[in-house]
Amino acid sequence: xxxxxxxxxxxxxxxxxxxxxxxxxxxxxxxxxxxxxxxxxxxxxxxxxxxxxxxxxxxxxxxxxxxxxxxxxxxxxxxxxxxxxxxxxxxxxxxxxxxxxxxxxxxxxxxxxxxxxxxxxxxxxxxxxxxxxxxxxxxxxxxxxxxxxxxxxxxxxxxxxxxxxxxxxxxxxxxxxxxxxxxxxxxxxxxxxxxxxxx
Length: 199
Known about the structure:
Elements (H helix, E strand, L loop, with lengths): L1 E3 L6 H11 L3 E3 L3 E2 L14 E2 L2 H9 L3 E8 L4 E7 H9 L3 E5 L2 H13 L1 H4 L4 E5 L2 H11 L4 H15 L7 E4 L3 H25 L1
Parallel strand pairs: 1-7, 1-8, 2-7, 3-4, 8-9
Antiparallel strand pairs: 3-6, 5-6
């Protein structure tokens, strides 16, 4: 299950709750070249890598998807290690991935070439309005107004991509969103069973 949505939509919270609380579901520790923040543990919150290590991983095909983000003062990479996903799937566990819309595009492209991924891939978009997103970001108090404005502009672009996803959840409360996600998972299992039967 690939989940995307704008900043502040609550997708990270939903993914963590699903991975920790639903039997048979696993999360995947993603990789990044950004520096650890206080309290973050390598291998738990992220796999922290140097830019050279990450670029080598790209060249060796170690990532299902990856992206390069230009930060305020540096260039950062983020990616989903292939081994963490495929090993869980091979063991019969479901996997929840939290990726941006570009990452979801990369996984859809991969599914066209890889039958195993195609028969396992379901995508869901957690949709909230830019106004709700701005209110949540201001309530968090961690971003400047300039950063909030930049994130809203990115979110408006991301919202136009929602129709590409198999399922859309219109964000409400955390409890309602999680209940909707559980319903989507059941629908996704039926969708994938049909896809496997036809494939």
